[in-house]
Amino acid sequence: MVSCEVCGDRPAEVKARIENSVLSVCNSCAASGSVIAKIQPPIVRRAPQIAEQVTEEILVENYAQKIRDARSVVGLTQDEFALKLSVNSAVLKAAESGRRLDMLTARRIEKALKIKLIENI
Ligand SMILES: [Zn+2]
After folding, report:
1. Ligand 1 geometric centre to CA of 100 (Å)
2. Where are the domains of the chain?
3. In order along the chain (121 residues), what is the average pLDDT of each group of 10 residues?
4. Whole-angstrom Cα distance, residue 46 to residue 61?
5. How far is the CA of 34 from the centre of ligand 1 (A)?
6. Ligand 1 centroid – CA 24 distance (Å)
7. What is the pLDDT of residue 40?
């Protein structure tokens, strides 16, 4: 609460014009001027509580198939695509055979082929 701009003792309750200036004043001090408006108590907007989300990223089940399909659509060989991704072609081969795919590579592939390989659970 703002305190009265005239007496400074009591909380300001109204906006009043006193001697050509508009001041936030208490009711007593407002008597020496003309009240313009009541001061609304400030609305405290609470920031929405963001629940702590614990999500885990996993690869979609058919990621190997998805990569193979999407790669053939863009017409790149495994080696060409590996080069484009800047990953070792062995990494890509492992991914396309469903043996192993790390999240970093998965993200690169997602971006390059505009497919979804990672989901949040
Ligand atoms: Zn006052």
Report:
1. 74
2. 1-42, 57-120
3. 91 93 94 91 72 82 97 96 96 96 96 95 83
4. 41
5. 13
6. 9
7. 78
HSE toward the beta carbon, residue 112, CA cutoff 13 A: 25
Q: What is the pTM of this model?
A: 0.55
List of E strands, the chain: 14-18, 21-25, 34-38, 57-59, 118-120
* Domain 57-120 class in CATH: mainly alpha
Interatomic CA distance for residues 3 and 12, integer angstroms:
5
Distance in Å, CA 26 to ligand 1 centroid: 4
CA of 45 to the centre of ligand 1 (A): 28
Q: How far is the CA of 81 from the centre of ligand 1 (A)?
A: 76
Confidence at residue 44, expressed as pLDDT on a 0 to 100 scale = 75
Rounded to an integer, what distance in angstroms lies between the CA atom of residue 119 and that of residue 48?
Answer: 25
C-alpha closest to that of 102 among 80, 115, 117, 83: 117
Environment class of 83 (CB within 10 Å of its CB; exposed 0-12, middle 13-18, buried 19+): middle
The pLDDT, as a whole number, for residue 36 is: 93
**Nearest-CA neighbor of 5 among 16, 31, 117, 20?**
16
